[in-house]
Amino acid sequence: MTTIELAQHIIDELTPQLGPGEATSVSRLVLEDLFGYRRGSHPRKLSQDEQIMAWATINRLKAGEPVQYVTGIADFYGLQLKVDPSVLIPRPETEELVEWILEEHGAGTQVQCLDIGTGSGCIPLALKAKRPSWACTGVDVSSDALDIAKGNAEKLSLETDFRETDILEEPSLHLRSAKWNIIVSNPPYIPPSERSVMSPSTLSHEPELALFVPEDDPLLFYRRITEASKELLAEGGNLYFETNEFNNEDVAALMKACGYSGVERRKDLQGKWRMVRGSLIR
């Protein structure tokens, strides 16, 4: 089997469940990330070991496993990040949140930035890559997630601090000893009742810890982070949230009620309300 034949075989196998467009995209990622083959390159014959890996890969994909977990790589804001089922797969809308932060805080600024619920470290690592002078920190309650984030920082040579923290508890001395100019979070926000409308791939493979909140308190993490950030943010500091389209207005109202100024909501490129930002003016 050649690389071109494998690419087409993946498309043929996955098109019935993914559609031709997504199947083609998955095929490209598999060939690039696992077999080092880019479209347009000279085709080559796969070794026996590669053919065994190819069949195993196709079976995992047909079983609904996300391609990023199969390859172990997720692309995010120009970075290649290691991912596994201990972390969420970074989404394009999170790239838009990073873009908003960079838009409002130019190059050369001295910024201390904290990402709460960092997962793979995608947000602080993307910010550090574009703003090398910033001091970026990511915290998470999952030690497994932090291992992934630390590995990504080391692989990318991006000096970023990662620490284990449960934001539902009192902020640690480390967090309180700094005055953060930016706090950002994409926290869990899905109530269990919405399982029925979620993709089987997400439910079966991505970490529940990073997805779900109590049914009777869907804004739990937004409220806790909003309250804690009043202590942690420097004067004039900004708090940024990623939300889903259904709770965006509620999160904005929560921030206003907690005394944040200039609260602004933004839509993503799909026209859905997905981001909120507010400033702390004491």
Structure description:
By secondary structure, the chain is of the alpha/beta class. It has helices at 3-18, 20-35, 48-62, 67-71, 92-104, 122-130, 143-156, 173-177, 200-205, 220-232, 248-257; strands spanning 73-76, 79-82, 112-116, 135-140, 161-164, 180-185, 233-242, 261-267, 273-279. It contains eleven helices and nine strands. Strands 5-4-3-6-7-9-8 form a seven-stranded mixed sheet, sandwiched between helices. A two-stranded antiparallel ribbon has the order 1-2. The model has no long low-confidence stretch (mean pLDDT 94).
Tell me the series of helices and strands, N- to C-terminal.
Answer: HHHHEEHEHEHEHEHHEHEE
Helix content: 40-55%
* Strands, total number: 9
**Neighbour order of strands in the largest sheet:** 5-4-3-6-7-9-8
The residue-averaged pLDDT reads 94
Could you list the spans in which at least 5 consecutive residues all have pLDDT below 50? none
Distance between the termini: 66 Å
User: Globular, elongated, flat, extended or rod-shaped: what is the shape?
Assistant: globular
**How many strands, which pairing sense, and closed or not: the largest β-sheet?**
7 strands, mixed
What is CATH's topology name of the largest domain?
Rossmann fold
Q: Number of helical runs?
A: 11
**SS content category:** alpha/beta
Instruction: Provide the gyration radius in Å.
Output: 20 Å
As a percent range, the share of strand residues is 15-25%
CATH superfamily of the largest domain: Vaccinia Virus protein VP39
Overall number of structural domains = 2
CATH class of the largest domain: Alpha Beta
- The assigned CATH architecture of the largest domain is 3-Layer(aba) Sandwich
Protein name: peptide chain release factor N(5)-glutamine methyltransferase
Catalytic activity: L-glutaminyl-[peptide chain release factor] + S-adenosyl-L-methionine = N(5)-methyl-L-glutaminyl-[peptide chain release factor] + S-adenosyl-L-homocysteine + H(+)
GO molecular function: nucleic acid binding; peptide chain release factor N(5)-glutamine methyltransferase activity
Domain Release factor glutamine methyltransferase N-terminal: 19-72
